[in-house]
């Protein structure tokens, strides 16, 4: 019997979520060759604003920070401390955590990921732009925070299993 397939590391399967910088500033000056005065020389210029790039580390701190950026873009409230507190209680920071013993698991829908979300909740509160995978750390955090915002006003208001 062959060994079960191992999940790839998150950094290898997640899309890079950063903004690429495009464009360069260019300035051109046309100088007169014969008989023209300095006043007749044409000057043109074009510039492009450089966009900033945000790179997130592939660890708990990076996942939370990336989630907060996605949440801000989607109007989902929550703070770093509120998210971190709940992650440490629910999964101790393990994105592959699964609860195979509680009432959800007994009903066939175990809680998964950093914030222990069950599949129906993940599907209902998934945030577009994140992976559709409850084990993806950013997708799990943003879906759980979206759910907590709907139910409790914010993940910051959650102090026990939810």
From TrEMBL:
Signal peptide stretch: 1-41
RNA-binding in keyword set: no
Keyword annotations of the record: Signal
Chain ranges of the Transglycosylase SLT domain: 87-159
Gene3D superfamilies given in the database record: 1.10.530.10
InterPro entries assigned: Lysozyme-like_dom_sf, Transglycosylase_SLT_dom_1
Protein name: Membrane protein
Organism whose genome encodes this protein: Streptomyces griseoflavus Tu4000
Taxonomic lineage: Bacteria, Bacillati, Actinomycetota, Actinomycetes, Kitasatosporales
């Amino acid at each position: 019997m062959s060994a079960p397939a191992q999940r790839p590391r998150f950094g290898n399967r997640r899309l890079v979520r950063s903004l690429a910088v495009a464009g360069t500033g260019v300035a051109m000056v046309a100088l007169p060759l014969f008989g023209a005065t300095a006043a007749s020389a044409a000057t043109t210029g074009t510039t492009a604003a450089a966009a900033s790039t945000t790179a997130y580390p592939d660890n708990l701190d990076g996942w939370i920070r990336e989630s907060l950026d996605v949440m801000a873009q989607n109007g989902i409230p929550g703070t770093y401390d509120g998210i971190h507190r709940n992650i440490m209680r629910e999964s101790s920071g393990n994105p592959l955590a699964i609860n195979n013993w509680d009432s959800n698991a007994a009903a066939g829908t175990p809680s998964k990921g950093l914030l222990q979300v069950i599949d129906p909740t993940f599907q209902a509160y998934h945030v577009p732009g994140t992976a559709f995978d409850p084990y993806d750390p950013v997708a799990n955090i943003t879906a759980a925070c979206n759910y907590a915002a709907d139910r409790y006003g914010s993940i910051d208001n959650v102090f026990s299993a939810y």
